[in-house]
Amino acid sequence: MAPVSSDAGKGDYPWWLVALAAIALALAGVIIANDLYAQVFGVVLKGLWVTIFVTLVAFVLATVLGLGVALMALSEHKALRQIARFYTEVIRGVPILVLLFYIAFVGAPALVAVINFVISPLVSAGAMEPVLVRDLSLMWRAIIALMIGYSAFIAEVFRAGIQSVDKGQVEAAKALGLSRFQRFRLVVFPQAVRVILPPLGNDFVAMVKDSSLVSVLGVADITQMGKVYASGSFRFFETYSIVAYVYLILTIGLSLGLRGLERRMRRT
Q1: Which of 2, 7, 43, 211 has most Cβ atoms within 10 angstroms of its Cβ?
Q2: pTM, two decimal places
């Protein structure tokens, strides 16, 4: 069998995108024309901003935490490297749904217990009220779980991107007298970001989909709003068709935007 060129398909007209656009327009027409679908769409759309908020906040926090873990993994200190490796292997080995339950129902009460222990002198003096588990909302528990779960994957993305930079350039920057932070900010990171961006974008799109898992905690996102409507109306086909439609618009739109950004970065 002849080998397939790596450039194969690059010049193909995006008929798949035309087909998706046609389906999306057809479904939009159905939503406009059909009162039932319009009602379902209105209900599901109420959870859109919750989905966007959870995804954006969790992803930003996961990116910051992942970068920190990646820098630990590349540290000159063996203990930091081992801690980072332990963290990434453990977190990547736990399903997001299990992590979500663990953080929500084990981690949150443990965190509240620690906080109450720390502020116990103030509580005894009457200066503060003890913190209750319910004070930490289920939405923020879900955000923390997504942050921890994705930070391990993002850490590996950063680590691979940073290590892809030619060591000769780092040595040259060191010879010029740049500090470790300056070498990272001015030499390493600007080059590593070209390698990091595509998989980081994929993780962002994946988090949009995985944010639907927060519905198991009752967080009023797109999936939860659809679940509540379907359980009350028994219109499962119509409801989950609309839920899938909304998620497809979000994820495909993000994927196309990220591809455009990657092309621009290649030109510069």
Answers
A1: 211
A2: 0.86
